[in-house]
Design a protein that fits this description.
The protein has a 7-stranded antiparallel β-sheet, sandwiched between helices. The chain is globular, with a radius of gyration of 30 Å. Helices cover 40% and strands 13% of the residues. Among the domains are: 134 residues, 2-Layer Sandwich (Alpha-Beta Plaits), CATH 3.30.70; 108 residues, no CATH class; 164 residues, no CATH class. Strand 19 and strand 20 form a beta hairpin. Helix 11 runs antiparallel to helix 17. The chain has 870 residues and is of the alpha+beta class. The chain is built from 36 helices and 23 strands.
């Protein structure tokens, strides 16, 4: 059973309709509904949710189907094949090149086909459905000391099927390689709906069954595979980059290597591995058997510092001689941004003055001593750019048994070590902070993913880096350099404003010239993130006309009418088309925001901030954090921060039928946001959906008025004192049989919801009755104001009493200020005028006290957020 599906499934008991707007092509909807058990959604809002992924691209799909089984997938593809309708299988929607957006019927495999079906620890394998998250798979096998080897950055939110379709890898590819190495068998649905299993097969058997003129697809597929192995071997040898990190085009080099016996018995190939990197263009993977690896015993990390980025690039190849598990780079831009982040300021502060870049080098080891020795050997070999520089001291003396491994000049200036888990994690978090920092820009200029994924032989990284910098300078922009230096994959995201035609032209020029450099240096256009809309057009330049033709022939054999995710890998995509933000993009909220948005480049900056990574979709068991509780309860895309952001942007940009204030569906979905602020903290971009929700609801109230339920909930701070005075009489409505049903009908509050119970003795009553502060001011170590939020004061004073006792036990002088609340309840219901008045009163009361050195302690977290940021 899938670990990311609560039991019982909350969707079974809810009555919220997750569709809205008009539904096009009703005949297609009806035909699919007759054929599948899963949901069929062709409404405006569902299509909007699947129009984007984590890339810079946006394409509105024909509709969305949420299959419950392989039979559902087969039924959809069989019907669409007959009718000439494109189909796109989709996992978590975390693709960075636009592979999972297309004008097609989207199959969301993560909705129901998301189970880890079985695990076999002895064989180190697992059977999973394509929609299962990589994080769930790892959680299932971790107790056995195993894991799925590829570790993409968004593995907790990425589906296994997506990892196969993308041939994903990660920071530790030096040790583990790509996903194709771990796919043992795959259940697939061919373009015409045929269900078959791909695994190991003798090439002679393929020859026996091959038939280019057959009516069925499999004999034609076998014929084309045999032809490629027979006729294209020399071209594959010549044109495919000799690198582990190459996911551009189809996986023909792997196929040929297996045929030659480089991975096992000669004359045997595994067709499941041909699915790796195919981006859903050849067949739809519905289940797979994957092999697993042992979790390493011990890890050790060295952080090497350099005065110049090019010095770091020169050092990568020599470092690889030490057999590291990972080598990661951060340039001066990211180090500067990390220095401004409290979590990493002290780490950056320990770097030598003038540090321009760092290399994080991680080793796997058999034990602590082995790990320390590996780091010591590295430091002895690589640190100390000149003879008069002091050699760094390490935990194991490098002079004892540590010899230079290479004859290359030493370029690293300094080294820091991390052998305990906490320090290692801090180094890694600093490295991984790069992307969130880049994605938090609220300006029109953003660090766009389009040429960030090239893979270069490590010995050519210095030349590649210099040339890339020159190309950026020629186009009047810059980029940061970070990520996987060891395998030669630098994530370089130029700063581009895709709303400007000139910038888009610069984007294409950069990609074109960088591709020329990549081909010349023996690299790949994509080492990790795939082709998609961003890079498909460069595959012909990378592989040449003959292999480009073979790609297209293979595609045709699998998919005669080019209906499976058409355009990707070997199609006619133009990277400058279908951009999410282009010169025709129009932003018109239809109202003036009521709150301050200057720091976010206006409310528009926050609306456009979500880049679509899907971090808000992660299950609690594997991702932790807060974001996003409504998605975790419903497992509906529209209840995730990404879904709300897409919907809101669609309404504001005119892609949906109505503006946000006039669309009841938009306001209802926004109202279901609980305002926890989890997204502001956990989201890599820092999307503040709670604040956006308040603005949209406020604008809706301004235009349509405030309903009774909203008034009651929003005015809770002013109504609660009356409820307390009338207690226990005020608590009777919650105890009368049938009152819940009346409440649901009259106010729209679920009958299952328990109402707050008012207390006749409030927190302030109790505090005054006890004589006020228990610790005199002149005897206290600190003076504290305990904020009397409405819930603690009137419905749960026990929490406030406990807080007073704890504070006094810490020798604090405690007082309760005379404030009526923070304004949180009206803020959470979009009643911003009322919220502003209450917040202003609280701040004016507290500010002088804080200025005099008193601390404010808050029991209710949402009130703390209100005072700190809202």
């Amino acid at each position: 059973m899938a670990t990311n599906t609560p039991d019982p499934d909350p969707r079974d008991g809810g009555d919220f309709d997750y569709t809205g707007g008009e539904t096009e092509r009703p005949e297609l909807v009806a035909a699919l509904e007759r054929r599948v058990d899963g949901d069929v959604r062709f409404d405006d809002y569902s299509k909007r949710l699947y129009a984007t992924d984590a890339s810079a691209y946006e394409v509105t799909p024909i509709g969305v189907v949420m299959p419950e089984s392989t039979a559902d997938v087969a039924a959809v593809q069989e019907y669409c094949f007959a009718e000439g309708i494109p189909v796109l299988p989709r996992g978590g929607g975390t693709s960075l090149a636009g592979q999972t957006v297309n004008e097609a019927v989207v199959l969301d495999l993560t909705d129901s086909m998301d189970s880890v079906l079985s695990t076999d620890p002895d064989a180190a394998t697992a059977r999973v459905q394509a929609g299962a998250y990589v994080g769930d798979l790892n959680a299932a096998v971790e107790p056995h000391g195993l894991k799925f080897a590829p570790d993409p950055a968004w593995r907790d939110k990425s589906a296994v099927g997506g990892a196969i379709g993308n041939n994903s890898t990660g920071s530790h590819s030096l040790k583990y390689g790509k996903t194709d190495h771990y796919v043992e068998e795959a259940e697939v649905v061919l373009a015409d709906g045929t269900v078959t299993t791909f695994g190991e097969v003798a090439v002679d058997d393929l020859r026996e069954s091959a038939d280019v003129d057959a009516d069925a697809l499999l004999p034609r597929i076998h014929a084309e595979i045999v032809r490629i192995l027979d006729e294209e071997a020399d071209e594959i040898d010549e044109r495919y980059p000799e690198m582990k990190r190459n996911v551009s085009g189809y996986n023909l080099d792997r196929l040929l290597a297996e045929h030659r016996g480089e991975y096992g018995e000669a004359g045997v190939v595994n067709l499941a591995r041909l699915m790796a990197g195919s981006e859903g263009t050849l067949a739809t993977v519905t289940e797979a058997t994957v092999s697993l690896v042992e979790i390493p015993h011990t890890k050790a990390v060295a952080l090497l510092t350099y005065d110049d980025l090019l010095d770091a690039m020169e050092d990568v190849a020599p470092i690889l001689a030490h057999d590291p598990a990972a080598v990661e780079v951060m340039d001066d831009v990211l180090l500067g941004l990390a220095a401004d982040t409290p979590e990493f300021a002290d780490v950056v502060g320990m770097l030598p003055e003038g540090t321009s870049s760092v290399l994080l080098v991680e080793f796997y080891a058999e034990g602590d001593a082995d790990g320390k020795q590996k780091v010591a050997d590295l430091v002895a070999d690589r640190v100390g750019a000149t003879d008069d520089r002091p050699r760094p001291e390490t935990e194991s003396n490098p002079s004892e048994g540590a010899a230079d491994v290479t004859s290359q000049p030493r370029r690293a200036v300094h080294a820091m070590e991390a052998h305990d888990a906490e320090q290692r994690d801090r180094f890694w978090k600093m490295r991984k902070s790069g992307l969130p920092i880049l994605l938090s820009r609220t300006t029109d200029e953003k660090h766009i993913s389009f040429i960030e994924d090239c893979a270069i032989p490590p010995e050519h990284l210095p030349e590649y880096t210099r040339e890339f910098q020159e190309i950026l300078e020629d186009n009047g922009t810059f980029a940061t350099f970070y990520a996987h230096a060891g395998p030669g994959v630098l994530h370089i995201r130029p700063l581009i404003n895709t709303k400007e035609v000139d910038d888009v032209e610069a984007m294409v020029d950069i990609a074109d010239r960088v591709t020329d450099a990549v081909v010349r240096l023996g690299g790949s256009v994509s080492g990790e993130h795939g082709d998609g809309h961003a890079r498909t057009q460069w595959n012909r330049k990378l592989y040449g006309d003959e292999l480009w033709g073979s790609f297209r022939d293979l595609k045709t054999a699998f998919d005669p009418d080019w209906l499976l995710n058409p355009g990707n890998v070997c199609g006619d995509f133009d990277m400058s088309e279908n951009l999410r933000f282009d010169s025709e993009y129009d932003y018109d909220a239809g109202f003036d925001p009521a709150m301050e948005w200057a720091i976010d480049n206006g409310m528009q900056g926050m609306v456009e901030l979500c880049h679509g990574c899907g971090g808000c979709r992660g299950p609690q068991e594997t991702t932790g954090g807060v974001m996003c509780p409504t998605y975790r309860a419903s497992e509906e895309e529209i209840q995730a921060t990404r879904g709300r952001a897409n919907m809101l942007r669609g309404a504001i940009s005119g892609d949906l039928p109505d503006d946000p204030t006039g669309d009841e569906f938009v306001t209802e979905v926004m109202d279901l946001c609980v305002g926890c602020k989890g997204c502001k903290v956990d989201c890599p971009s820092g999307v503040d959906m709670a604040k956006l929700k308040a603005e949209v609801e406020h604008a809706h109230h301004e235009e349509h008025g405030i309903d009774l339920r909203t008034r009651l909930l929003g005015n809770f701070e002013s109504l609660a004192p009356l409820g307390s005075k009338l207690a226990p009489l005020s608590n009777l409505p919650g105890k009368i049989p049938g009152a819940g049903l009346v409440m649901e009908k009259a106010l729209g509050i679920a009958k299952e919801r328990d109402l707050p119970t008012f207390r006749s003795e409030t927190l302030t009553d109790w505090f005054e009755a006890r004589g006020g502060a228990g610790v005199p001011r002149d005897e206290a170590d600190r003076e504290v104001l305990l904020f009397p939020d409405v819930y603690t004061t009137y419905t749960n004073p026990g929490a406030g009493k406990a807080a007073v006792r704890v504070l006094e036990a810490a020798n604090c002088h405690v007082e309760i200020p005379d404030v009526d609340g923070s304004g949180r309840p009206p803020h959470s219901k979009g009643m911003l005028d009322e919220s502003r008045a209450a917040a202003r009163d609280a701040v004016e009361t507290l500010a002088p006290e804080v200025s005099d050195g008193r601390d404010v302690v808050v029991v209710e977290p949402t009130d703390a957020v209100m005072l700190q940021s809202d």
